[in-house]
Amino acid sequence: MLPNSVNTPLQGFRAFFTRLIDKQKMGDKRLKQALSIIRWLALAAILTFLIYRLSKIGWNSLYESRPTSVLFYLISVLMFMVMPIVDKINYFIMTGHNIPEGIKVFSRKQVFNEAIVSYAGETYLCPKLAALPGHDTRKALIAIKDNTLISALVSNTWTLVLILCVWWVGRSDILNEIWNLSPILNGVFGAFCCLLYLVSIVFFRKFMKRAFREIWRVAAIHGVRIIILAALQIAQWKSALPSEEISFWVMFLAVQTLVKRVPINGDLMFLSVALLLSGFLNGDGNTVTAMLVAAAAMNQIVQFAAFLLTSDVKSKSRESRPHYPLAEHAAAE
């Protein structure tokens, strides 16, 4: 047994580190709360701005100018389903297993990422992957990291291609307008994205421990996903405004892609930026605005419906289904 002269300092050190850990946990909790408050304040500010700008245009005018094509609203559902299907395929490639109720899980992940904040869905997905045979939290995080890096690299490359296309079709003026909205903020954000893009290219092999064949398969699927979504998006806009030229839709697509780099509700951010840009108001401005409002509203409705449809419902057969307490805890958070 240690003498009191030794035991007392050890107890003091133990108490000190215990208090330090407790403070760190409290700090993490407060940081999460602060980020949550900032996120909801940002969404509230966006909604307030949208209500103000749309009220100035006139709600009756927007309603009368709304898209009437059934295809316009159906495409919103098709666009939502693309990402869950792609995720199901890619995570099967990387884990070798199908996640139980995969489409349901990946649809809910999509809702978290689109309606709340980017990568919130990955937090929900991690325990689901960790529950697969031969997997744990570490392997789940590696799979998520690899898929995210590949997706980001492909998506950022696509963004650069779109920017070049906007310049090629002679609509670079719209990029200047976006820059003029907030040069400092756009400059910092653009520099940060470019730095991440360069780092991801230079250190890609150090970040990725997978075989090239597997990487290329996942990258190819993400590439197909981007092309399908772009085609569906242009088809949706075209169904509402069939008279517009292709350069107009390329410009639309480029701005939407750039705006969705911001990790907050992409649809509402895109609508907010669109209302600030005079370049969007070619022809009948009310028709363009009504189309954007209808698309954003429809996307929110689809996401809300998906959230309800993927919620766990108590039933007699629930006990027979796989039970993941960690995943349910993450979903509750």
From TrEMBL:
Q: Which UniProt keywords apply?
A: Membrane, Transmembrane, Transmembrane helix
Name listed for the protein in its UniProt record = Lysylphosphatidylglycerol synthase-like protein
Task: Note whether Transmembrane helix occurs among the keywords.
Answer: yes
Q: Does the keyword Membrane apply?
A: yes
Q: Which domain of life is it from?
A: Bacteria
Transmembrane stretches in the record are 34-55, 67-86, 148-169, 181-203, 215-235, 289-309
